[in-house]
Amino acid sequence: MILTWDQSLPTPQKTTAKSRRRGTLLFIGLLTLLNAPFDWFSLGLTRALLRRGLELGGWWPYALALVDAGLAPVIIAVLAVTMVVGVQAFDGLAVHGSGKPVLPLDTLLNGIAAHPSLPEYWWLYALLLSTMIPSLVNLVIGGASLVRGLPGLPSLLLRKIPAQGNVPKFDRAWIATVLTAQVAAGAALGIAAQTFLVVVIIGYTMPWLGLGLLDMARDVAAFNLPAGGAALRGQLIASGLPLRSRPRPLAPMLRLQFGLAFVGPDRLAGFGSLFHLGVPRSPAAKA
Fold this sequence. Notes:
The chain is mainly α. The protein is built from 13 helices and no strands.
């Protein structure tokens, strides 16, 4: 992703060191942080559905694997909208600091609409589709299990594989080939199912519902939530309403939340003794 962005810059003479630092911060810092919660949620959802499918047994693992794969495009759509808002906020701060937008969204979205297959946009596809990896693995496991369970072939393999001892040499090659082909066929079936669901949901179902991914990104970019929030804050300041410019102290907040004034050196020591923290008390408290 970083190499793609670096190669897409106009020329080394037209880019400054500050713009490169901002671009690196955007791609390595902000976009990575925005993507991480969605990857975590996707992985947790896959594990939960896989565990539930194994508990129910029967055909439930395959059905829940398809549900997991069907929810993956929805997670991708929410991630895309979140990235649009994050990039707008980052570019707004860059412009406020007497700079230029690092990743102009109008240029990016219009370029994707006109030439979606250009290599300069592959980093964005990889970033969005990375949240689909747990669902893809789930489908690959389900596809391999489904192919392994096809009737006829497992019984033939069991007859050729002895319960004790080694497999005869003249049977080893074709048995290994069949076992490998089963896993490969199951993996191909899972990848095909995931690709089919993504194309159907993102390419046909969401546009039919008026929720095309590119159209949603353009609408969110046109709404410009960060600029609207900054304008609202400016209006509040202009109206004379008091705004806190400094963070509130934690002690009153904790007293209100817990109902106990344990904030302070002595109270904190008493509270910490419950967890054997070993916080020393002051001489006045001991007296």
